[in-house]
Amino acid sequence: MYLNSPVTQFESLSLTKEPNPEEPEIEKAPVEVAFKSPSLPPSVGEGAIYLNHRGNSLAQQKSEELQKTLLAHRHDRQLVILQDFPDPDALSCAWAYQLIAQQYDIKCEIIYAGALSHQENIALVRLTNLPIHRWTPQTLKTKDLSCYQGFVLIDNQGTTSQLLSSVQQAGIPLVVLIDHHSIQGDLQSEFEDIRPYVRATATIFTQYLQTGLLALDTSINQHVKCATALMHGLRSDTNRLMQAQEEDFMAAAYLSRFYDAQLLNAILQANRSKRVMDVIERSLKNRIVQNNFSIAGVGYLRYEDRDAIPQAADFLVTEENVHTAVVYGIVHDEDEELEIVIGSLRTSKLTLDPDEFIKEAFGQDSAGRFFGGGRTSAGGFEIPMGFLSGSNENSAYAKMKWEVFDTQIKQKLLRLVNPRDNPIQSE
To answer: Residue ranges of the DDH domain (predicted)?
Structure first.
């Protein structure tokens, strides 16, 4: 059985952007999974035997529950809703779900409302032909939603999608919810698999594959590309596997049988755009450093440049004597007349919980939903600007508005960073 094979076979996993031309290519053995038909119980699959031997009964149980849910929704049409700015983990898992659902004659459309701006995300979609579609709130109004029998949330819980409220108002039920973030709200789903202790949603989906929900085949190009996308998602959410746990490594080992190392390397070598470099430069210029926290507001950004914010945070956290970086800006979409404050947090401090830090700093909206959250070493927040959104034709007004939001965000962050120097006087 592969997963108990010598560790040398695991060495085919590429952890760097530079391939080793001297490393011999490892022959990928064909997959032999007993779980051939969606109507068969997944427990007979090769991956399921491994999981049971490891005592991972939860993964097995969830796979069986998901299978029953899919069987109950044969021939349905579903919407797979991702966060407005989907990352590799979300993109790859949505694709894996679509391939699994196809076996039950379930047609899925993967949609998001924001933008793909990170160069690696753009490369991932283009090089793999990942089937994803952008539906803005305006686009949604032109769609006939009555043809969908359910919707799916993957790697998010609806708090980071503009599409959720419209889909719910259309009366479409939530059928599947799969995520590795902390619980964000009270959503009722027919099937739910939320595991905050798992480093990547890609690990959860790889376990589904191991139990036989989909038998990957290296002769099928789509399977190879999806496995490559899952490897990228797993690698991305575990900081190049440096923060991976045992189950993440085992998931990577399983995927190493199917993924295309050259394709992954091409995705990772995508170049930063000039706009991203400009935002990084702005963050360096505007940052303040207190108590080993680096905080930087970068002003206004185009909607399509949103992913420059986490890249700037990735850069600032590498500065000497800095363990945590927070970068934020006002992201605006002129076409949709939408503005939102978006921020990213990166930390190397083991005792700092990004999820708790962001939730304590920014709190909840009127519906009780948090403005942000996080996972190990990373987090993010999105704050709608409401009535103050738009109307930036007057440069003096736009500058004044930015200064107000910049000051308010800094106050909320510094209240936690420097509690004794808190500029906000609480009664």
So the answer is: 80-233
| Residue 399 three-state SS | helix
| Inter-residue contact 149 to 174 (CB < 8 Å) | no
* Dist. CA 223–CA 143, nearest whole Å: 30
The domain boundary, picked from 224, 248, 268, lies at 268
CB 368 within 8 A of CB 352: no
Burial of residue 372 (CB within 10 Å: 0-12, 13-18, 19+) is buried
Phi–psi pair at 189, nearest 5 degrees? -125, 145
Q: CB of 21 within 8 A of CB of 268?
A: no
Residue 101 lies in a domain: yes
Q: Are 77 and 7 found together in one domain?
A: yes
φ, ψ at 390 (rounded to 5°): 80, -165
Distance CA 417, CA 27 (A): 52
Strand-by-strand arrangement of the 293-302 sheet: 288-290, 293-302, 324-333, 338-347, 378-384, 372-375
pTM of the model: 0.67
Domain boundary among 238, 268, 298: 268
Which residues of the chain register pLDDT less than 50?
1-50, 52-55, 422-427
Residues 91 and 120 in one domain: yes
Position 414 in a domain = yes
CB neighbourhood size of 272 (10 A): 14
Number of domains present in the structure of the chain: 2
Domain with 95 in it:
2-268
Residue 424 lies in a domain: no
DSSP state of 268: H
CATH of the domain at 376: 3.10.310.30
Claim to verify: residue 326 and residue 395 sit in the same structural domain: yes
State pLDDT tens for residues 214-264. Answer: 999 999 999 999 999 999 999 999 988 888 899 999 999 999 999 999 999
Q: Residue 188: how many CB atoms within 10 A of its CB?
A: 8
423 within a domain of the structure (yes/no): no
Report which of 306, 364, 254 is spatially closest to residue 86, judged by C-alpha positions. 306
- Give the Cα-Cα-Cα angle 377, 379, 381 (nearest 5 degrees): 165
CB–CB of 202/87 below 8 Å?
no
